[in-house]
Specification:
Pfam family, one: HATPase_c_3
Organism: Pontibacter oryzae
InterPro entries: HATPase_C_sf, HATPase_dom, Heat_shock_protein_90_CS, HSP90_C, Hsp90_fam, Hsp90_N, Ribosomal_Su5_D2-typ_SF
Number of strands: 22
CATH superfamily of the largest domain: Histidine kinase-like ATPase, C-terminal domain
Distance between the termini: 117 Å
Protein name: Chaperone protein HtpG
CATH topology of the largest domain: Heat Shock Protein 90
Number of domains: 4
GO molecular function: ATP binding; ATP hydrolysis activity; ATP-dependent protein folding chaperone; unfolded protein binding
Length: about 600
């Protein structure tokens, strides 16, 4: 006999709310219904394990079928099923959680609540996003119960009638609306299943094929796995990516539950495109790859999987909700990553150095983003010099302390951002037995600033920011072979030859072996402009200002003594200045053409 009644809700507008606002992404319906089916199957397995069900379990699986002609999608399981009374209780009373009641009932038996992933209620009603009529045909596992057939057309009215079903379990049949015909395409359904259900803990069958891996490696103990297992799983997640450098297996059950595997990909200098590669799961159900609240921003450069039932989601499981659990998980992951890097560094420094180019951006980004990560990473972050040798911060300080401490007892670390372009300056520094670091990645301008803030009595200077004798200032004076009058004359000659108000000329005594003319952009000026280009607050005006260079004329270089004696002083001074420009790739266009012509003239006259 058919029974009719009204679904117990507080408003008759609940279905439009569910359809239009609660689940904004229509494909979510399949995730919810398959999750419910898996839930019912897991409950069946649990009841069997504690002896409450003694019959034959059979092959536990969930089946998804599309009938394009009949315009239906059917999700079937051989789980616990329901009686007519249970349908009224779990389906007709919206938001009543069958999973919650089940967990409460069996928690004393030591069952794993995390295996109950779905819940009837609002999740089930996501079916009406794509259906104008939904049917449930179900038979309970309990002996002596009759199968039932529930029908609802999306209004608050339902009907329950006897059904013909031989085996336990539930079939949910969706009669698809015209505006949702895309979901009658098997390829569309397969894509959704592969996205959300790829790692569900129960086999999910579609078109005669099991489309999921019910036992992904993050659910296993690290001791059960080999390096090859981790690499194969990475290939399963990211078929088109290069093999990862190494990985971290997360496994914690207190004060929150969290499992997963984070992989370190090869980053090099290009890290923007790497984002949104970590997948968030809740009890093996895919939730999102937008994990910025769970994972610190700098760790979003990693790849992999995080699975936690304790991550709070909104009712549609589409968005994270911030709370203390998320912060604890965030902190835990940061610590695990830092500990893993430190372990690799200590265990095999050679391998760590080999991989440094691939992970340096990530480590430096982490140090800039998170003080706690900095405290751990400062012991394994590496500095590479132009000779290709690697040092920790403390090792490097010890290396250069004696020779690179200035008159104010400030340790000066010299660096190049482009060893080829700044080769002349690097060579000049090395001629003084100074060591030069390579800091040439996209993040190093920020990293340099951080080091100066964190390290006591330490400053960093780019090798082309000063003449070599001024890079590390000493309590010493160098004698000039020119008197004051000659120096003033030489300065005037060069100012006339250069004729550029953005080139600040000075004459200074340097070694005769140094270049006759040295063009430098002061460290402060360059940093301000770098900050402006990066969008630094308060420095935007710097981006519109022309570069102001210092032009140092070496008073002790023989060429400049010849300039003073030359008939065409300005011509020779301009030639020396253009050579300095050329050495830094700063000569182009008409200036370069004129330089070449002038060079031929000088050579011809010689």
């Amino acid at each position: 006999m058919e029974e009719r009644g009204n679904i117990s809700i507080h408003t008759e507008n609940i279905f439009p709310i569910i359809k239009k606002f609660l689940y904004s992404d229509h494909e979510i319906f399949l995730r919810e219904l398959v999750s419910n089916a898996v839930d019912a199957t897991q409950k069946m397995k649990r009841l069997s394990s504690i002896g409450e069900f003694t019959g034959d379990l059979g092959e536990l699986k969930v089946k998804v079928e599309v009938d394009k002609e009949a315009r239906t999608i059917t999700i079937s399981d051989n789980g616990i099923g329901m009686t007519a009374e249970e349908i009224k209780k779990y389906i007709n009373q919206i938001a009543f959680s069958g999973a919650t009641e089940f967990v409460e009932r069996y928690k004393e038996t030591g069952g794993d609540k995390d295996q109950i992933i779905g819940q009837f209620g609002l999740g089930f009603y996501s079916a009406f996003m794509v259906s104008d009529r939904v049917e449930i045909i179900t038979k309970s596992y309990k002996d002596g119960t009759e199968p039932a057939h529930w029908t609802c057309d999306g209004s608050t009215e339902f009907a329950i009638a006897p059904a013909h079903k031989e085996t336990r379990g539930t079939n949910v049949v969706l009669n698809v609306t015209e505006d949702s015909e895309e979901f009658l395409e098997p390829m569309r359904i397969r894509t959704i299943l592969e996205k959300y259900c790829k790692f569900l803990p129960v086999a999910v069958e579609f078109e005669g094929e099991v489309i999921n891996n019910p036992n992904p490696i993050w659910t296993k103990q690290p001791s059960e796995l080999t390096d090859e297992d981790y690499k194969e799983f990475y290939k399963e997640l990211y078929p088109m990516s290069e093999a990862p450098l190494f990985w971290i297996h997360l496994n914690v059950d207190y004060p929150f539950n969290l499992t997963g595997i984070l992989y370190f990909p090869k980053l090099k200098n290009d890290f923007e495109v790497q984002r949104n590669k970590i997948q968030l799961y809740s009890r093996q159900v895919f939730i999102t790859d937008e994990v910025k609240d769970v994972v610190p921003e700098f760790l979003m450069l990693l790849h992999g999987v995080i699975d936690s039932p304790d991550i709070p989601l909104n009712v549609s499981r589409s968005f994270l909700q911030a709370d203390s659990s998320v912060k604890k998980i965030n902190t835990y992951i940061t610590k695990k990553v830092a500990d893993k890097l430190n372990e690799i560094f200590k265990k095999d420094r050679t391998a760590f150095e080999t991989n440094w180019d691939d992970i340096s951006v990530f480590v430096k980004y982490g140090m800039l983003s998170d003080d706690k990560f900095y405290e751990k990473a400062k012991d394994f972050v590496l500095l590479q010099n132009t000779e290709g040798k690697y040092y920790t911060i403390e090792e490097y300080k010890a290396l250069v302390q004696a020779n690179q401490t200035d008159k104010n007892e400030q340790l000066v670390m010299l660096y190049t951002s482009d060893a080829e372009k700044q080769h002349a300056f690097v060579e000049a520094a090395q001629s003084r037995s100074y060591d030069v670091l390579k800091l040439d990645t996209v993040i190093d301008s920020h990293f340099i600033g951080m080091l100066e803030q964190k390290l006591e009595k330490t400053t960093l200077k780019r090798v082309d920011s000063e003449t070599v004798n001024k890079l590390i200032e000493r309590d010493e004076t160098k004698e000039s072979v020119l008197n004051d009058t000659e120096k003033e004359e030489l300065k005037g000659v060069y100012e006339q030859a250069i004729d550029n108000k953005n080139m600040m000329v000075e004459v200074a005594p340097m070694s005769p072996d140094d270049a006759p003319v040295v063009i430098t952009l002061p460290e402060f000026m360059r940093r301000m402009k770098d900050m402006s280009r990066a969008g630094g607050g308060g420095m935007m005006f710097m981006g519109d200002m022309p570069d102001t260079y210092n032009v140092t004329i070496n008073a002790n270089h023989p060429l400049n003594q010849r300039v003073l004696k030359a008939e065409e002083k300005s011509k020779m001074a301009r030639q020396a200045f253009d050579l300095a420009l050329l050495s830094q790739n700063m000569l182009s266009g008409a200036a370069l053409t004129n330089f070449v012509k002038r060079s031929f003239e000088i050579m011809t006259n010689e």
